[in-house]
Amino acid sequence: MVRNTSAASAKASAKIEAFPAIKVRTFADHVPGPAPVTIVRKSAAALTATEQQTFMNAITSAIADGAYSTLVRIHANMSHDMHTMPGRPAGTQRFLPWHRLYLINFEQDMRRFEPTFFVPYWRWMDQSSIPDWMTNFKPKGVTDANGRPIVVTRRPGTSPDPRARTLPTSHTIRTTVINHTVYTPFTLALEGAQPFGAHNLVHDWFNGTMTNVPKSPADPMFWMHHAEIDRIWWLWQQSHPTQNPHVSGADAVLDPWPEHVSDVRSIEAGSHPYSYDRTQL
Hints:
The chain is mostly helical. The chain is 39% helix and 2% strand. Helix 4 (89-110) packs across helix 6 (183-191), helix 4 (89-110) packs across helix 8 and helix 7 (198-206) runs antiparallel to helix 8. The model is unreliable at 1-22 (pLDDT under 50).
């Protein structure tokens, strides 16, 4: 039997071409990738005109995209147990790590629109107003979970609670928050739950959108305020490295994200490291 070698050869070639070339994995492939870039968060008062514009542009773009409203709605869902509330002891422990992760997700989301974006912190201690460049930035277009518009309002210093008509001083924070040596009383004081002050007082000082818990992130000042809360926690951590939130099981999962409390203890570690340009209170 005579074989048609040319036909057989063509058939074999067709078979070979039908399969893509396989890349041989070598030991050269087993090397670590580039280290993640550490973002430096700066004071809102020290931002250049370009950095100010980057902040505002990112948020404006995220509102148009719908991403900003999605982030705001996360904070409106109290089932995430991220504040001190009656009968919900885990909220006290989760307050700081949950909001740290919330800021990280916000920051990374905004970098999709502006790659150099970072969350500036507003050092509200010893201040009487917000940064001048933020006064007129009250973006429109943010909606709640029902699609209703959230109008950003501010009436700073006019709170019906006389305790919230002036912002905390550095002396007050030093003597009522930083002075604690154990995590639970520290986080209660920084949150402003016990005693009233710090975080809660600043929210109430705005006497507007920032005072409304579910809607507060609609005001971009929310992120700057919480960056300052995070910065104060980070400063305190330097002197109390063994003091951490007391949570376990499901309470340790910072829903709606998969990360655990232990994943955000350090701002220098993890896949999205960052630092602050001010290392003093």
